[in-house]
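User: Run a structure prediction on this.
Assistant: Running it now.
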Amino acid sequence: MRVKVETDEQRVIQSITITGDFFLLPEDALWKLEERLKGAKLERNEIIKKIEQVFEETGGIVVGSTPQEIAEVILEAREP
């Protein structure tokens, strides 16, 4: 999984793209996840909460990964 994330000076996500060799079902859950993460503070608990909300709303699952692991990839994408 690869993540490109842009934040403002307060570490609020302005744009995010999640790509890579992974399976997220249903297919539209990825688009919804990226949209939901825009405007979120780049903090572990907030990111996990947003991921869990999208998965609950869409019935989404990532084969072989958890919301916590996805959040870690997102956070690592913005580390200096």
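The chain has one domain: 2-77.
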